Amino acid sequence: MAVNLSAPGDLLPVDGVRLGITSAGVRTAGREDLLLIALDAGTSVAGLFTSNAFSAAPVQICRSRLRERTAVRGLLINSGNANAGTGAAGLEAARHCTAAAETQVGGMVLPFSTGVIGEPLPAARIASAVPRAADRLRPDGWLEAARAIMTTDTQPKAVSRQLSIDGQTLTITGIAKGAGMICPDMATMLAFIATDATISRSTLQEVLGRAAADSFNAITVDGDTSTNDSLMLMATGAAGGAALVPDSEQLAAFEATLAELCVELAQAVVRDGEGATRFITISVAGARDRSEARRVAYTLAHSPLFKTAAFAGDANWGRILAAVGRAPVEALDLSRVAIAIDEVPLIAGGEPHPEYSEARGSAVFARAEFGVNIDLGRGDAQASVYTCDLSHDYVRINAEYRS
């Protein structure tokens, strides 16, 4: 049950990128579960990956291949199997699959997987399906691609944006998947974004890191960081024109549009959180630094008591108060703290607000989406985190995940 998540609008092709999907029978026969993305020569590629020590085989290979600085000509993504916790055999399986894809696109391919952890990847089935995916490569395959990488997602997640720089139209299109096991420490479960702008690889990596900070690195569904988190940004340069360079107005304009796209995709992951019925924005202001603001926001976002109260529509604001109080903040002065839910104040100067009533609080908690606003009153830094409630369906979905 996605929370106010609309179906993707018109998705714009990105010159220099073609996408093809097919069924490899990775987990379910007949399901389209394999995506091949072909990139034109000269495409710059940047990536961010999970901080999980048990990073999946494809993540390990991607990191290694990107360090080689060899030109990337394609991405191969399968759903249904994470190829994580599979040891040396998993690495060999990923290499076998990408070798099959490299003969189709004419250069190095990066592997990505999502699905069940700890099961052997059916490499032979995937490799034999790659030519079918290659036969279906086309520039307008973004929506089908978004569907192919889904696991417990209920809807595909995809966004396009365009901007004009010096009279030239640039396109950015991205897709993402993720609904559970979402607490990124880099990006989201899987996300692939492409643009026809001309940007060097080093600059692209810097831009991606900044864009992820307030989007994919500011979401949580359940507090679990995946073994497979990967976020990729590709710049084909097919639009022509001058390269976007650091400290320029042109790059700043591009980065602002990219940031909007990343926030929309990241929020879509939370809106489609497993079993979610509420979308909640937690904003912390008045912190000494951004890190402190994020620690407070995540303490509340990870509270099962708060999240289950949100699911019930129960305005038990004591759950909020307790989470703020136990957040890792040194010498918090309660007399400076203020807390509100949307327009309804809860706490002012560390004391219950005289205008609060159970009826007003319940009205906010009954909304499909609402915000919790916390002011620590100790500085100028702020940060926001996006999360959802924790429902009966979340337990059911994960209890039955391998069934």
Give the amount of beta strand, in percent.
Answer: 25-35%
Total number of domains: 2
SSE topology string:
EEEHEHEHHEEEHEHEHHHEEEHEEH
Query: Share of helix among residues?
Result: 25-40%
Task: Catalogue the unreliable spans.
Answer: none
Principal-axes geometry comes out as globular
How far apart are the first and last residues' alpha carbons, in Å? 20 Å
What's the gyration radius in Å? Answer: 22 Å
CATH class of the largest domain: Alpha Beta
The strands making up the biggest β-sheet line up spatially as 13-12-11-14-10-15
CATH topology heading of the largest domain? L-amino peptidase D-ALA esterase/amidase
Mean pLDDT: 95
What characterizes the major β-sheet? 6 strands, mixed
Total helices: the number is 11
Can you identify the CATH superfamily of the largest domain? L-amino peptidase D-ALA esterase/amidase
Q: Give the strand tally.
A: 15
Helix/strand layout:
Layout: E1 17-22, E2 34-39, E3 44-49, H1 57-67, E4 72-81, H2 87-105, E5 108-116, H3 123-135, H4 142-148, E6 157-165, E7 168-177, E8 190-195, H5 201-213, E9 230-235, H6 249-271, E10 279-287, H7 290-301, H8 304-312, H9 318-326, E11 338-341, E12 344-348, E13 351-352, H10 358-365, E14 369-375, E15 381-388, H11 392-399
Parallel strand pairs: 4-5, 8-9, 10-14
Antiparallel strand pairs: 1-2, 2-4, 3-9, 6-7, 7-8, 10-15, 11-12, 11-14, 12-13
Helix pairs in contact: 1-2, 2-3, 5-6, 7-9
